[in-house]
Amino acid sequence: MQDIAAIRKHYSQKTLSENDVAADPIQQFGRWWEEAVSAEIEEVNAMTLATASLDAVPSARIVLLKGFSTEGFIFFTNYNSYKGRQLAENPKACLVFFWKELERQVRIIGLVGKLGADENDKYFHSRPLDSQVGAAASPQSEVIQSRHWLEEQFRRVEQEVRENQVQRPLHWGGYRVRPVIIEFWQGRLSRLHDRIQYTLEDSGRWKIERLAP
After folding, report:
1. Cα dist. 22→36, 46, 207 in Å?
2. Which residues are catalytic?
3. Which of 83, 162, 180, 199 is spaced 20 to 30 Å from 151 by Cα?
C-alpha cells in the first residue's frame, strides 16, 4: 500500500504578486477564469460549496458555478435540500475552486441570497429537458425507498409534461454568494506558495494582503 503521507506534488508553473493582481477581486477571478477555460480544464466550473447550520455543523459538496459578476457567484439547487436548509438557517457560505492543471485555488467567503423568480425561470428553462424533469421529480436530500421509486417519479413527471413545458418547482432556484473575502492561491516550490487575499472593507473598497503559506 502506498504511503499516503509520502505523496508529494511540486508546484512550479506560475507566480502571483500583489503588485500584479487586479484592484478588484472579481476582475482578478475573471483573469484566472479565462486562463482556466483556455487550459480546457474538465468541469472548470466545479466548485466546493461549504455551508454550516446554526449549531455550527459543517457540510460540503461539489456544485457547479453558473455565472459570476461584480454582484457575486451563482449556483442553482433545490431549496429543500440539506444545503438549502442550512443556508436558510445560516446564509453564509464558502466556495473553493481547485484548478490542479494550473496549480491554483480560489477561496471565496460570502453572504448568500436567493435569486429572483425571473432569473430562476430563465435558467431552469435553458436546461436540458431531462434535467428539468429530474429537478421536478427528485426530493433532493430526502430519504427515499429505492432507485426504482425515483425512476418511477421521473417517468410520472415526464409523462405529465410530455406535451407541455415543465414548470419550475417553487422549491428549486438559484443563490448568489456575495463575497466579503476572496483568496487566490498559486502553488510554488518548497511549499512557499503565493497567497493573495482580498477583504471587503466597510467603505466598499477591497484591501489586498499577502498571507503566509
Report:
1. 17, 23, 12
2. 191
3. 83
Give the C-alpha separation, 87 to 177, whole Å: 11
Per-residue pLDDT of the chain in tens (213 residues, 90 and over written 9): 778 777 777 777 899 999 999 999 999 999 999 999 999 999 999 999 999 999 999 999 999 999 999 999 999 999 999 999 999 999 999 999 999 999 999 999 999 999 999 999 999 999 888 888 888 888 888 888 999 988 888 888 888 776 677 889 899 999 999 999 999 999 999 999 999 999 999 999 999 999 999
**For the whole model, what pTM was predicted?**
0.89
> Which residues of the chain are in CATH 2.30.110.10 domains?
4-125+170-210
Alpha helix locations (H) across the chain? 25-38, 82-89, 117-124, 129-137, 147-160
Q: Count other Cβ atoms within 10 Å, centred on residue 111.
A: 13
From start to end of 46-91, where are the E strands?
A: 46-52, 58-64, 67-69, 72-78
Q: Which CATH number fits domain 4-125+170-210: 2.30.110.10, 3.40.50.20, 2.60.120.10, 1.25.40.20?
A: 2.30.110.10
